[in-house]
Amino acid sequence: MRSSDLALATWRKSSRSNDGGDGACVEVAGLRDEVALRDSKNPFGPVLAFTRAEWWAFLGRIRAGEFG
To answer: Domain-by-domain residue ranges, the chain?
Structure first.
């Protein structure tokens, strides 16, 4: 992942994120070849990057209830 990709990234929070004041949520950005994930409380902190295949596999496991 290039830092220039992150500088131009459009970050999004889930519509189901916790807006209860504690800011406990993550943000996701679609990059050129990857999907990036960061802590919304620390937007200049570390970023995790996943291939698109890894990201879609992760979402599939969430939808299947594997993390509930």
So the answer is: 3-62
